[in-house]
Design a protein that fits this description.
binds zinc ion; alpha+beta; 12 strands; 7-stranded mixed β-sheet; 3-stranded antiparallel β-sheet; single chain
């Protein structure tokens, strides 16, 4: 499978097959984590690839759908703003401001809300960058997500003046992507979004 990408240099970016398999495998493994029907307590609950649960006794059906998350690549004088994660998953690794979209919320508003919550500040405007699939394991349950990435330029931002949410992040770092230790980046989807940004930097 490949996805036509319109920004940057154009052309096609192949979707690594292994990534899809990893997501599917993790969901199948999670299939056994729910044992009883939440409606009638039947122990005969059936998992369909960890994406759907069906109860043959009462007809209950539940879909473990893809969750939407949104994040922002904030560019400060040619460097990118990262948060060092203070919680699992990926404790101590680098992430972008962002989080899950809430019911009834636009992805743009979710990205800005999460940014405000995590930094005490948010940019005035955003530009859509790209979306990538991700796997977010939380307390033994894997969530397949679709992560939407936006970007914003904040040339005068002073990282020392930010009001960091200590429950989410331990510190802020402004880093050059050319020197980045990519394996310290928390999520595969973030690495792909940053590579995409590198190929088509903001004017
Ligand atoms: Zn049932």
């Amino acid at each position: 499978m490949s996805v036509e990408e319109t920004a940057g240099q154009g052309g096609k970016e192949a979707m690594p097959e292994g990534r899809h398999e990893a997501v599917a495998k993790a969901l199948i493994e999670a299939g056994s984590s729910f044992r009883f029907c939440p409606a009638c307590a039947s122990p005969r609950l059936i998992s369909d690839r960890g994406r759907r649960w069906i109860c043959p006794d009462c007809g209950f059906e539940y879909f473990h759908n893809v969750a939407t998350a949104a994040g922002i690549v904030i560019i400060v004088g040619g460097r990118v703003l990262f948060l060092v994660r203070a919680r699992e998953p990926a404790l101590g690794r680098l992430a972008l401001p962002g989080g899950f979209v809430e019911p009834g919320e636009r992805a743009e508003d979710a990205a800005l809300r999460e940014c405000r919550e995590e930094l005490g500040w948010a940019p005035d405007s955003l530009e859509f960058l790209a979306s990538y699939p991700n796997l977010y394991p939380y307390k033994g349950v894997p969530y397949a997500t679709c992560d939407l990435y936006f970007r914003a330029s904040a040339p005068g931002l002073d990282p020392d003046a930010l009001d960091i949410d200590a429950g989410e992040s331990s510190s802020v770092k402004l880093l050059e992507l050319d020197d980045l230790a990519w394996d310290l980046v928390a999520f595969e989807s973030t690495r792909r979004a940053l590579r995409r940004h590198q190929r088509a930097p903001l004017a």
